Amino acid sequence: MPPTGSVPARRPLGTVTRGTTSPNRLRRMDRWIAHTHGAALRRSDEPPVAVDLGYGAAPWTAVELLLRLRRVRGDAEVAGLEIDPERVAAAKPYERSGLTFGRGGFEIPLPRPPLLIRAANVLRQYAEDDVPAAWERLCGRLAPGGLLVEGTCDEIGRRHVWVALGPEGPRTVTFAARLGSLTRPSDLAERLPKALIHRNVPGEAVHAFLRDFDRAWAAAAPYAPYGARQRWVRAAHALGTAWPLVDGPRRWRHGEVTIGWSALAPRPSGPSGA
């Protein structure tokens, strides 16, 4: 892939993030991407391009994304994009074949549309009303069959929630955790992406979902002696009788649950993202 600097320079779209990052912070998200999007990566007629948007003050997440995608597609390429030029300069020594770093934001200034954009902990600092436009712009930069994964996680990657979107818009929401870190599934509420975090209130679907997940978790307490994983799987089984989960035990055993976006989409008359 040509270096990102080969595209005419323009002012990046977006706001500089805090830059917090650490090794393996996005491992759970990457693992899910490789499973869910692996077939599309393998079908690509040319080396698939992925973007790590807003990778932060250190390049670790972009380096790791390349390694994980190359287990699925050996010639995958990753472009790390940051608005802050100092972060780009600091990452340049880590460039290698298939891995580049450049200055950019929501405009995704690459010569070839990416098959994947990962935007982790980027929109958290924006207003809720800003999210639809950001999603639309990023999805508009995807190659045919591409995927945008946008969400939030804690500082060491124990708890994640992310939305997966295609060119047509949001598809699913995934809740993922190191299960030993949870007392109940609703502990993940603090990591809801910006589109949902202000909607965790009575009357909104995401609030009802987390309430029901907690109830299913409580009912699965007899499985606790067999470990948190078995308890999570049993709770997910029960939850799936009332909510449209789109995955199954194979993913649940990884501490994940994925549900269709339409089931959790905010009510138009709900609270604003103030």
From TrEMBL:
GO molecular function, one term: methyltransferase activity
Keywords tagged on the record: Methyltransferase, Transferase
UniProt keyword annotation of Cell inner membrane present: no
rRNA processing recorded as keyword: no
Region (Disordered): 1-22
Biological-process GO terms, alphabetical: methylation
Descriptive protein name: Class I SAM-dependent methyltransferase
Species assigned in the record: Streptomyces armeniacus
Lineage, uppermost ranks: Bacteria, Bacillati, Actinomycetota, Actinomycetes, Kitasatosporales
